[in-house]
Amino acid sequence: MVDFGKSDYFHSMDRPEQLKLRTNELGVSSKIGDVLQGFKADVQAGASHVEIVFQGTGKGSLQGQTNPGIFGKDKRNDIRMMGKLNGVTVSTHAAVTKAGWSGFNAQSRKFSRKEAQEGLTELKRTIDFAADAAGGGPVTIHTGEFPRSVSDDKFTFGDENEQEVYLANSRTGEIMAFNKNMNLHEPVWKKDSQGRFLGVDGRPLQNPNDLLQRAIEFDEQGNGKFVQKNYNDVKKEIDQWNKSNPNHKRNADMEFFKLSQRDNWQRTYSMGQASLLSFRRSIEAIEELDKDYREWTHYENKIKDPESLEKFKRSFEHHLTGGRNKSILKGDETPSEYLKKKLNEAKDSAIREKEGYQGYQKEIEKLEQGYKDIKSIQEVGVQRSAEALAEAAMYAYDVKESRNKKGENIRTITVCPENMFAEFGYGAHPQELKKLIQSSRKEMVEMLERKGIKGKKAESIAAEHLKATFDIAHANTWYKYFNGDKKQFDKWLVGEVNQLSKEGIIGHAHISDNFGYSDEHLTPGQGNTPIKEFIKTLKDHGYEGKIITEWGAQGQDEAHGTAMLGAWAELANSPIYRIEGGSSAKWNDIEHAGYFGATSSPNTMVGRYATALGKDWQMWSYTEAPLE
After folding, report:
1. What is the pLDDT of residues 103-129, one digit of tens each?
2. Rounded to an integer, what distance in angstroms lies between the CA atom of residue 234 and that of residue 244?
C-alpha cells in the first residue's frame, strides 16, 4: 500500500489549500463483487478507508446479487486483518436494492409487519458482517419509507392539483389515497355567529369533526343546500378555522377523506336504519300475532263438532279481512294453524331484518373505527420505520457489547439511514431524514429503558447508534424541482446540512457529482454539486467521520479508483494523483514510442507537476504549466 495524505506536507508550488481536508479522510466505495479482491485493489490504490457495498438480498451470487451471506469467516477475517496491517478503516453499505424499513409494500399498498421483519433480518446480517470484517463502524442503509406529497413549497412536483394525498390505517397498515383535483358535493353546514358548527339540536358541536351530528342548511323549498368543493377549497377553509380555533384544530386531509367517503357512510347508515325500523315493526307484528294465536286457539279448542268449526272459520276470515268475507284459509286449515304459520313467517322476517341491521351496524362501527385509526401516512409510516430502525440499532448495540465482553475490539456499529431521491419517498428530504433519526432514537431510548438503561445514558447510546448518512449528490438531484436558480438552491441545501450538523444528525457522508438531475456518480468537481461547501459545513461543526467517494460514471478504461484520486485532487489538494488509464505505463513504452511520443503519463505524479486528464503532458493544476 502507498501511504498517502497522512502528513501536512505540501509542495511550494501546490495550489493554496482551500479545505482543511487530508486525503486519508476521503474513502472510496468498493466495487460490487468479491469483497476481498475489491478491498485489496482499493488498498493498493492508496485508499485509507473503504466502504464495502452489497447489491442484493436473499440468496446471493458473485455475479451481481452480492450479500453478506456469501462471504465466509476467512474472507471477513482477511479484510479485517489487511485493514489493520495497512491502517485502512472499513465501513459497510447494506444492499443497495433494498430501500425503506417501514414495511411498506408497493404492490399491496399497505404497511406489512412481515415485510418489515424480512428487511430487518437482512439488516441484521449486514450488521454481523460489519462486526466481523470492519470491526464495527457505520452501516449505511437506503431510505424510501413510503409514498408522500412533499410539503416544502420551495419545490414543485408537476401540477399541484394532480398530487395525491396519502393516509394510513395505524392498526391494519392499509393505505388510502385521494387526488387533490377530486371534487365533492359538500352540504352547506349550519353555523352560529362565531363560525361554530351547529348540531341537529341547534347547539354548537363540542367536536367540530363530527360530520354525522352537523346540521345542514335548507333552501326556501326545503331542500338541502350543497356546494362543490375540491381539496384546496377545504384546506383553505380549515387553515382559516385553525387560526381562529387553535384549541380545536381540524385536519384538512382527514376531513376531505371523510367527506369523500360520506356517500358510503350515508348509504350504510340509512340502510341500517331502515333494517332497524323493519325489525321493530316485525317485533310488534310478532307480539300481535302471538296474542291473536293464543286467543283464537283458546276458542278453537272448545269446538267439538264440524259444523261449529266451519262457522268459527268463517267468523275468523270475516274478522281478519275487515268484514269482506274473503277466503284466506286453505282447505282444512284452521285459524290456529293459519296464525301459527303467520307467526313463524313474522319470526323469520324479524331474524332477517335483525341480521341486516346488525350487518349494517357492524359496517358503521367499522367505518367509525376506521376513521379513528386513519392518520396521516407520515404519522403511521415514521412510527413503523422508527420501530424497525431502533430494533436494528439495539441489535448493533448488543453485538458490540457481547463481543467486547469476549475480548474483541468492536467499534460502535452505527445504523445510518441515507437520504435518497425525491422520487424514492419519505426520507429523501433533509427534514424527513432528521425526523426519521430523531423518532428512531426516541424509540431506542424506550427499548433501552425496558432493559434498565435510563436517562442521559440511554439517550447517548441511541445517538451513537443511530445517525444519518448524508449523500450530497442525492440531495443535489432535488435541484430539478427547485423554485429558483442553482445559487439559491445551493444556499438552501448547505443551510439544511448546517442544521442537521448542528443537531448531531449526520454521522457519515457520501460524495460524488452530478448536474442536479440524476445521480450520475461523476468524479467530484465534474458536476455542479456543492461538495466543497458540504464538506466545509461538516468540518465547521466538528465532523470527524469519513467521507466516502462513490464511483460509477468513470469510463471503462479508468479504474474506479479514479473517483477517489480525482476527489483527492479536487478537495484535499493532494500532491499525488492518479492520472488516466487503468493500466500502468511501462519503461519499454519509451523504447517503442519515444518519450515525447507517449500519450499517457505515469500512474502518479508528485506535486503540482502532473498532467491533466485528456491533456498531453500538461500540469493538472491552476497554472497548467508545461512539464519540463
Report:
1. 999 999 999 999 999 999 999 999 999
2. 16
d(CA 475, CA 422): 8
Least confident of 78-82, 202-206, 385-389, 437-441: 202-206
Residues linked to residue 230 through DSSP beta bridges, in sequence order: 183
Q: How many Cβ atoms are within 10 Å of 366's Cβ, its own excluded? A: 11
Contacting residues for 210 by C-beta, under 8 A, at least 6 apart:
199
- CB–CB of 416/468 below 8 Å? yes
| Sheet with 164-169, side-by-side order of all strands | 175-179, 164-169, 374-376
Report pLDDT for 98: 94
Beta bridge partners of 618: 626
User: Do residues 429 and 422 lie in contact, with contact meaning Cβ atoms separated by under 8 Å?
Assistant: yes
Distances (CA, A) of 361 to 209, 455, 596: 21, 48, 92
At 124, give phi and psi (nearest 5°). Answer: -65, -40
Asked whether 140 and 470 are in contact (CB, 8 A), the reply is: no
pTM value?
0.76
The pLDDT of residue 267 is above 80: no
CB 180 within 8 A of CB 236: no
- Rounded distance, CA 295 to CA 281, Å? 21
Rounded Cα distance between 443 and 92, Å, is 24
Q: At what angle do helices 486-502 and 430-450 cross, to 10 degrees?
A: 10
Q: Count CA within 13 A, CB hemisphere, residue 319.
A: 10
Task: Tell me the per-residue pLDDT of 128-155, one tens digit each, with 9 for 90 and over.
Answer: 999 999 999 999 999 999 999 888 999 9
Band (259; pLDDT cuts 50, 70, 90):
confident
Predicted local confidence at residue 360, as pLDDT: 73
Distance of CA 621 to the CA centre of its chain: 44
* HSE, side-chain direction, 13 A CA sphere, residue 552: 17
- pLDDT of 278 higher than 90: no
605 phi and psi angles, rounded to 5 deg: -130, 140
Cell numbers of 286, please? Answer: 310478532
Q: Which long-range contacts (CB under 8 A, 24 or more apart) does 276-285 make?
A: 276/353, 276/357, 276/361, 278/349, 278/353, 278/356, 279/350, 279/353, 279/354, 279/356, 279/357, 282/346, 282/349, 282/350, 282/353, 283/350, 285/346
For residues 42 and 382, give the distance between their C-alpha atoms in angstroms, rounded to a whole number.
37
Q: What is the mean pLDDT of residues 325-346?
A: 88
DSSP-based three-state secondary structure for 292: helix
Which pLDDT band, with edges at 50, 70 and 90, does 273 fall under? confident
CB 423 within 8 A of CB 417: no
Q: What's the burial of 617, exposed, middle or buried (CB within 10 Å: 0-12/13-18/19+)?
A: middle
The per-residue pLDDT of the chain, averaged, comes to 85
Q: For residue 266, what is its C-alpha cell?
A: 350515508
